[in-house]
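During the no-cost extension, the postdoctoral fellow (Dr. R.K.) reprocessed legacy sequence entries with the updated structure-token encoder. One reprocessed record is reproduced below for audit purposes.
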Amino acid sequence: MELFLSPASPGGLKVAAAAEVTGLRPELRPVSGTEQVVPFKSHSNLPALQLPTGDFIFSTNAICQYLFTLSGKEPSDATNQWLEWEATQLQPAMQTALHATLVQGRSSKEAIVAVRKQLSHLDRALTDRATPCVTSDTVTVADVVLWGALYPLLQDASCLPEDFAAVREWFQRMSSTGACLKAVASVLEGKGVQIFKAYLQKQPTPAPLPEKPASNETEDRRCS
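Re-encoded structure tokens follow.
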């Protein structure tokens, strides 16, 4: 297997971490912004995992799930729900937050408002379950995907409000693991999250930051 990574894409964090956690380390192929990875696509969607059959997997969450499944860690209903939640609820909010911090120069504490509803949902789930990880006592694909999505904003978690204590503890625990440390080193290349700025500038402008914290009253509790 070959894993094509661009240092400019935030999605590379979760994929690199999944490769480390599972011990399935595909051959890493750093890709420049102009290099064509897939012969039949004019613009490659990175990260991309090329399978031994020659087929490609492009979705970051699908790549992570594939690596976990290949390592013998089958998905559960809970991990599937968290991956769906991350893709449909967390990712759009994170796009707003990262555009605000990396493109507009807003502080992380200001940008937290964009993901406050999602952080509240995750914090409540971690508190209710009372396990070290999101769905169990051990790291699953859900932990890796959520950590990778949040890392560019939270980094050292110092910007988290005090009422997200469970998220802070979980995030710091994940960030200190060897797998996540290696993922950060390989994707950020010592340049920090500013490396993602050029990628974000090329994306459609997301919704602006909310003027006040979003209400949690209608929060989806499917993953609790």
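Residues 214-224 have pLDDT under 50 and may be disordered. Strands lie at 2-5, 27-30, 48-50, 56-57. The remaining legacy entries will be reprocessed before the final report is submitted.
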